[in-house]
Amino acid sequence: MHKMRSRQDMFLISICVCTFKRPAGLAKCLASLASMQLPGGCELEVVVVDNDSAASARPFVESLQTSYPLALRYFCEQQSGVGFARNRCLAESAGAWIAFIDDDEWADPQWLKELWSHLQASGVDGVFGPVLANFEVDPPAWLRQSGVYERHRDPSGKRLSWKNCASGNVIFRKKLVDGVGGFCADFAASGAEDAEFFWRCLQAGAVFEWCDSAIAQENIPPARMTRHYVLRRAYLGGHNYARLQAHQMGPSVYLNLFIRGSIVIVAFGFLALLARIAGNPRALFFETKVAGGWGKLKAAFSMPEREYGPGS
User: Fold this and answer.
1) Cα 174 from Cα 182, distance rounded (Å)
2) In which order are the strands placed within the sheet that holds 105-107?
3) What pTM was estimated for this model as a whole?
4) Which strands, in side-by-side order, build the sheet including 126-128?
5) What is the mean pLDDT of residues 247-274?
């Protein structure tokens, strides 16, 4: 006779959402979590951490709590920076497993079920999935054809390095935090706090894999469909990459990154120029490589820019 799993044997998963003044995005994210397929043998809670000191998301989240199909809890983190909000998620969550999804994303119906199924089958410490760009309005042809919003995807089961570990679509063992600590304050406002955290986890022996069927969608509003935005994002990515390398391996790495960044600027700058002359829409892609090279080159000589919170 099949024995039913008792409540004590159920796995508790905490789905964490950090938010900052994105009411429409948060509403869509929470609606997707409420309607998704649930993994068997699990209990779920949704933890919303508001990084707006005015607690602007509180009325909306609290208005959902009585009718929401999952346990829904709200907290306000006064210290500005997404890393501080993520640490508050870790502190307040009750689950043995932590899943993160962003407030400008929504989950496909099978999102968590696919993550959990892969996790149980593989026995690894964390599973990551793709975040697909979903344009709020039709993007300009030059932007769509450039491919800059086509993120790298891997086959399911591939082991991941820190470069492929981001917090927009992930589930991981909360026990990892006991060994390596939480998200680093040095990257709390600039971004890349997730890559730095998962890098430490990997150094401590954690194993992470990719699940290509666990899909989250990211909203791309018109403000992110400009050349200026795309290039600034690429510059910050290069800047944070260099800072991460120096954080882990010491400031001497900046010399190597300066040289590499210079080579990237020259090589991709030449390709971008040729593409522009030929009218090739991939020119913007090459220009993002140049912007990332500038970020690496300047990281040793400039302060990190605020990407999250007031003034970002």
Assistant:
1) 10
2) 105-107, 216-220, 131-135
3) 0.90
4) 71-76, 42-50, 11-19, 97-101, 169-173, 126-128, 208-210
5) 90
